[in-house]
Every structure is written in C-alpha cells, then in structure tokens.
Amino acid sequence: PLYLSPDKDGYYWLIPEEIPLGVMQIPAEPKEAAPEEIPEETVFADDAMIQMFDPEEAPQAEEEEVIEITAVIKIPRLNLSECIYKGTGKEALKLGIGHLEGSELPNEEGNMVIAAHRSSNNAAPFKHLEQMKAGDFIEVNHWYRTYWYEVFEVIIVDKEDVWVLDDVEGMDYTLTLVTCDPYIYFGGNRPDRLIVRSQLKYIDEPVIENGVIVTQ
User: Fold this and answer.
1) Termini Cα distance of the chain
2) What is the pTM of this model?
3) CB 179 within 8 A of CB 126
4) pLDDT tens digit sequence for 64-77
C-alpha cells in the first residue's frame, strides 16, 4: 500500500507503507497573502459540466498540463480508493478523479466538486456511481485529516445545470460528485450528469507528539 505525503512545498507524493508516519515532519500549510479586496463569489461558466467530459469543448492549454495530487477519496459502497487530481481537464480525468478548480477543498467552507469518467479507454472510477444511496459515507484524506461526508441526494440533471456546482443552502461544507449519464460502454451521446451530493459530518484529526505524526 502507498500513503500520501506532502513535501516542503505543499505537494503530495505517494510513499511506501514501510516508511513510518512517526518520522515524517508535519509540513507547514502554505501561507497565503491577505487579499486586498474581498473575493467575489465563484461563478461557474454555463458550460462547466460540458467541458469536464467533452474535451473538444474545453479550451486547449498552451503548455503541457501538470498534474498534482490534491487528496485521496475512499467510497466503501463502491470499494473505491483513488487519488484526487488537481483540475478536471483531459489529462487529469485520464488518470482518474479530478477536483474542479474554483470549487472548495475539504478544509474550506463551501462546496467541493470532483468529477470522473463513468466509461473511458483510460480511468473510469465512477463507473458504478449510480449505486450510491442516501446515508452512504465518503471519506476524503487531505492534509493529514480525514473528512467524512454523508450522502443526502443522488440525482440526474442536464449537463448545462451548473447550479449543482454551487454552495448548498443551509450546509457549510459539502462534497459533490459528478459523472456523465447515461452509462455507455463506448461512444454515444451523454446529455445528462449523475450527481451525488453529500454533507460533512465529522473530521478525524491526526495525533501529534513533539511535532511529528504518530498515528493517522
């Protein structure tokens, strides 16, 4: 098995299980400069969900896309354990699950949005996402903390219904999973999106002694 470990610059790397967590120094979270103005609310483009799964609709990057690991997700219902990569571009979704830029991370208030293919020549980690049910739990590991989300809704929407990417009224921390629908083995039109929405229930903090992690 591999563990996810951040280096001194805040990037994550997969390390072998035999390296004990107890000898790993805790990296300081990257400090962000105080904004001069209050940032405006994130507004997703009308074609945000189209671009996730229709690469020809997405703007082409001028330089080679660099893929960074953001977190790790585990879904017991699907027997799934996968890395979450930064961005939902073509290269990120080739590898697996991508985090929609502009949406929140687990330690940030708002809605975290992740997406993956349901059928693909490459990775298709959300192939059986339709099996998710209200009450199921989703585990996300980020910055040595484990965030537990409980599913409260599984719905199908049109691919242009970007409102599902917005913050959920009355819920401070949420996680939204997005994939294409219907499931088609190869090719074909997928006009809809299968959406799984969940709410943060609790957080497991690491045990720290003398500045090092002794358990996780």
Assistant:
1) 15
2) 0.73
3) yes
4) 555 788 899 999 99
